[in-house]
């Protein structure tokens, strides 16, 4: 591999070093690539493919199909309807952080007629879902991102800003790459939908041995997921009660096996929260299982058709600017200024902002902190810990993660056809998110296949992006 390039950034969590992207390319020149991408059609995906191997043509998946309807039989709090029209006075609002939370807040506030300024510490927007271009024109991502079919809130935002055609639908299967290139599938493709498609996926999976599958079935059959089929709110209450129990403890106590945890659930837990089943709460895993069990499309994955700066954050920022919002990049909030009245009430009076050697006090009618975990720990005035709400924020711990991008001069996930894997005319291999139980990293994808608009390059092969805990970094 040639042209090793190292970028270091922060990516949320309590990371001193949390996003690291290597982009290494062999720069093998070849003839014109065979991949052509059309991303504008308002119909479902039609691909020339065998299984989840993608070749030659990718058609866009708009958000008009294969998306769960979370307005029905789903916990209401997680999927709120559009807010009602605001009738009060226009407010000047200062938002700290231009991640998805800050920007989606800005979109809603602007729609309600308020004046919005967003202050972002970094020189690019998007936060953990951000990306930027290096001096060679490579897009460097903060992390590998997939979008489940139940992400209705985000889909609503994308539709609003005109970016709903920027997602590509992937085959409805979850793929595990095991040692030696053995491929395991949790394949949800079936004639009928939820919950039968999920049952079929677990019965048919080749990722687990028969004994572990039976034990898995027992655990899931005795979980609140079953209640979710008829009473989603009640199931959600049961699931919330499991917040203090790790998924491993819950799963084993319901008959599940350690082998299932290692072969299937740990990679999924890592992909969800960068921690294993001994650390992730049963609440987190069972919430997503209950969506998967009740909504056919909830487990379908989409990925951006290119880089987040072009396809996700760019359109959101454009919408914000067109509606009068303002971005202030590289302006970090250093201190929250506040007053206490004689009645003991506390009011924020301003924000101390700095950009290099410049400093200003920002005053607004309302302030929103949409920071990552370490960011908010640094920002909250210590005396506010007297309130449980703010003190609880200090109980949140971030997880350091590393994102690595590697460019190859061949197709890494094409494991059957050696010749095809060595040519550079067309993209071949597995077009999906890939989990791994046997590697130092939990999940990865070939972006040149999954997100070809900005990542497929003439004469070059796979662009593998993988995500791991920072421990991996020290073994490189
Ligand atoms: C590697 C990785 C992969 C992921 N994959 C997925 C996935 O596949 N699917 C999924 O749904 N989610 C995924 N996530 C999670 C998802 O990216 C985050 O939940 C989401 O992006 C968080 O958005 P946010 O706006 O809350 O926070 P952030 O994105 O962290 O944004 C916070 C922003 O605030 C800024 N900031 C902090 N302090 C200050 C300050 N004092 N002054 C000014 N600005 C400040 C930061 O610079 C940052 O830009 C992934 C996360 C990572 C790290």
Automatic annotation (TrEMBL):
<dbReference type="InterPro" id="IPR050464">
    <property type="entry name" value="Zeta_carotene_desat/Oxidored"/>
</dbReference>
<dbReference type="InterPro" id="IPR014103">
    <property type="entry name" value="Zeta_caro_desat"/>
</dbReference>
<comment type="function">
    <text>Catalyzes the conversion of zeta-carotene to lycopene via the intermediary of neurosporene.</text>
</comment>
<comment type="pathway">
    <text>Carotenoid biosynthesis; lycopene biosynthesis.</text>
</comment>
<feature type="domain" description="Amine oxidase">
    <location>
        <begin position="100"/>
        <end position="452"/>
    </location>
</feature>
<keyword id="KW-0150">Chloroplast</keyword>
<comment type="similarity">
    <text>Belongs to the zeta carotene desaturase family.</text>
</comment>
<dbReference type="Pfam" id="PF01593">
    <property type="entry name" value="Amino_oxidase"/>
</dbReference>
<dbReference type="InterPro" id="IPR036188">
    <property type="entry name" value="FAD/NAD-bd_sf"/>
</dbReference>
<dbReference type="GO" id="GO:0009509">
    <property type="term" value="C:chromoplast"/>
</dbReference>
<feature type="region of interest" description="Disordered">
    <location>
        <begin position="25"/>
        <end position="44"/>
    </location>
</feature>
<protein>
    <recommendedName>
        <fullName>Zeta-carotene desaturase</fullName>
        <ecNumber>1.3.5.6</ecNumber>
    </recommendedName>
</protein>
<keyword id="KW-0125">Carotenoid biosynthesis</keyword>
<dbReference type="InterPro" id="IPR002937">
    <property type="entry name" value="Amino_oxidase"/>
</dbReference>
<dbReference type="GO" id="GO:0009507">
    <property type="term" value="C:chloroplast"/>
</dbReference>
<keyword id="KW-0957">Chromoplast</keyword>
<dbReference type="GO" id="GO:0016117">
    <property type="term" value="P:carotenoid biosynthetic process"/>
</dbReference>
<keyword id="KW-0934">Plastid</keyword>
<keyword id="KW-0560">Oxidoreductase</keyword>
<dbReference type="GO" id="GO:0016719">
    <property type="term" value="F:9,9'-di-cis-zeta-carotene desaturase activity"/>
</dbReference>
């Amino acid at each position: 591999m040639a042209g090793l390039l190292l970028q270091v950034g922060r990516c949320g969590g309590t990371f001193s070093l949390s996003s690291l992207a290597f982009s290494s390319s062999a720069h093998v020149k070849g003839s014109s690539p065979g991949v052509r991408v059309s991303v504008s059609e308002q119909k479902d995906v039609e691909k020339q493919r065998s299984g989840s191997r993608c070749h030659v043509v990718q058609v866009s998946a708009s958000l008009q199909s294969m998306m769960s309807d979370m307005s029905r039989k789903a916990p209401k709090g997680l999927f709120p309807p559009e807010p009602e029209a605001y009738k009060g006075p226009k407010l000047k609002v200062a938002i700290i952080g231009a991640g998805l939370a800050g920007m989606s807040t800005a979109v809603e506030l602007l729609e309600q007629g308020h004046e919005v300024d967003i202050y972002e510490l970094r020189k690019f927007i998007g936060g953990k879902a951000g990306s930027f271009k290096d001096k060679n024109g490579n897009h460097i991502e903060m992390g590998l991102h997939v979008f489940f079919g139940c992400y209705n809130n985000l889909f609503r935002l994308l539709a609003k800003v005109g970016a709903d055609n920027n997602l590509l639908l992937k085959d409805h299967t979850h793929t595990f790459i095991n040692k030696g290139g053995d491929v395991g599938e949790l394949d949800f493709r079936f004639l009928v939908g939820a919950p039968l498609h999920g049952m079929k996926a677990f019965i048919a999976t080749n990722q687990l041995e028969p004994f572990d599958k039976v034990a898995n079935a027992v655990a899931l059959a005795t979980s609140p997921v079953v209640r979710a089929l008829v009473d989603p709110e009640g199931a959600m209450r049961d699931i919330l009660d499991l917040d203090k129990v790790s998924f491993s403890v819950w799963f084993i106590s319901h008959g599940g096996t350690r082998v299932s945890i290692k072969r299937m659930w740990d990679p999924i837990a890592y992909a969800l929260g960068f921690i294993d089943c001994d650390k992730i709460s049963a609440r987190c895993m069972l919430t997503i299982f209950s969506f998967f069990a009740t909504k056919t499309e909830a487990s379908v994955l989409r990925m951006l058709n290119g880089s987040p700066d072009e396809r996700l954050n760019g359109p959101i920022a454009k919408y914000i600017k067109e509606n009068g919002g303002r971005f202030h990049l590289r302006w970090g909030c250093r201190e929250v200024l506040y007053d206490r009245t004689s009645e003991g009430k506390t009011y924020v009076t301003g924000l101390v902002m700095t950009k290099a050697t410049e400093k200003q006090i920002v005053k607004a009618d309302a302030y929103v902190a949409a920071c990552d975990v370490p960011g908010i720990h640094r920002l909250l005035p210590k005396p506010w810990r007297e309130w449980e709400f703010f003190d609880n924020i200090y109980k949140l711990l971030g997880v350091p993660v590393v994102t690595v991008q590697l460019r190859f001069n061949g197709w890494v996930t094409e494991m059957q056809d050696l010749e095809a894997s060595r040519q550079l005319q067309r993209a071949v291999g597995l077009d999906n998110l890939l989990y791994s139980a046997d590697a130092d990293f939990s999940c990865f994808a070939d972006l040149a296949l999954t997100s070809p608009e900005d990542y497929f390059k003439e004469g070059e092969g796979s662009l593998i992006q993988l995500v791991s805990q920072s421990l991996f970094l020290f073994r490189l």
